[in-house]
Amino acid sequence: MKIAFFDTHRFERPIIEAAGASHRHEAVFFEHRLTEQTVASAAGFPAICSFVNDRLNAAVLRQLHRNGTRLIALRSAGFNHVDLAVAQELGLSVARVPAYSPYSVAEHAVTLILALNRKICRASARIHELNFSLDGLVGFDLHGKTVGVVGTGRIGAVMARIMAGFGCEVLAFDLAPDAEVAGIKGVKYVSLDEIFQRSDILSLHVPLTPQTRHLIDDRSLSLMKPGVMLINTSRGALIDAKALIRALKTGHVGAAGLDVYEEEEGVFFHDLSEQILADDVLARLLTFPNVLITAHQAFLTREALHNIAETTWDNVTAFEKGEKLENEVVLKLAP
Question: Could you report the per-residue pLDDT of 73-106, keeping only the tens digit for each?
Fold first, then answer.
């Protein structure tokens, strides 16, 4: 089966091709994102594969259906970019990669914490200018600090274990607390407000839903300790970026490590070095020396890319054979 892969990048294509060959499938790669303007590229493909910044709204889904597509394979865990109600109405199957490497994302979150705390980017830049002064590079011991982990699914659970290993007190929150996580020495489930009030470092690991959109806003920020460090490797819209800027300007937020951004579509994954950045909010965030932004790369390890490719092709193979889609995303309708 030929599959159209949208929004693809050089770093992933060889891995996708190698995995596809073992499944006897063929990948056709498109660099552009799947949108209303590019959906014609998918004509004739029984299945397409999309990434996080593709736009599978009602118009795109209806055109895909008209053009013969029956499977949408997501090479991501998140599916908030797909209008599931319309997909189900049209009979389009949607399958995702629910777990590729929780270690990749959790370890990246820890990387952001360590880099911000010990001023690694600033220190490295100084050294290259032959400035060996230590002024302004003072950090703090992670040992003994209180770390809030919001969301204890696969990634959040790994994050809780890592931070407990540093000797931190870990406060966890999840709508469905995990008994295994609760059993980790140093980890305790508490209310969301208590996490906001007590955490020295707060790390977000929840999906984007109507309930979690702008989970971090003026109110929640006002509850946090002065100087709190905020980490987001989940979804950009969990944070109201303008509220974050206000808190950074007053010094209430001491540092922020962001691998995702609410308006990253059309910016992240692209080389814009010869262009003017049109996003004023992102441009303002980039001016803060205590803000570290990476371009949605937390997932970017060899292990994760391999697992994403294998699971994607497994989903395609199951669909082709008419087997049950273990990773199908189904919209739960209210009774």
Answer: 999 888 888 999 999 999 999 999 988 899 999 9
Domain range holding 202? 102-293
**Cβ pair 232, 259 in contact under 8 A:** yes
The whole-angstrom separation of Cα 196 and Cα 228 is 9
Tell me the HSE value of 208 on the side-chain side, using a 13 A CA sphere. 21
Give 93's strand partners. 71
* List of residues 6+ apart from 242 with CB closer than 8 A: 281
**26 membership: H or E segment, kind and range:** strand 26-29
Q: How would residue 20 be classed by pLDDT, with cut points 50, 70 and 90?
A: confident
pTM, two decimals, is: 0.90
Burial call 181-212: b when 16+ CB within 10 Å, e when fewer: beebebbebeebeebbbbbbbbbbbbebeeeb
- In 167-243, beta strands by DSSP E: 169-173, 187-189, 201-204, 228-232
The residues annotated with a catalytic role in the active site are 235, 264, 296
Please give the Cα distance from 259 to 231 (Å, whole number): 8
User: What is the C-alpha to C-alpha distance for residues 145 and 112, in angstroms, rounded to an integer?
Assistant: 16
Q: In what order do the strands lie in the sheet with 253-258?
A: 187-189, 169-173, 146-150, 201-204, 228-232, 253-258, 291-293
CATH of the domain at 109: 3.40.50.720
Instruction: Extract the runs of DSSP E, i.e. beta strands, from 211-282.
Output: 228-232, 253-258
Domain total for the chain?
Answer: 2
Residues 162 and 106 sit within 8 Å (Cβ to Cβ)? yes
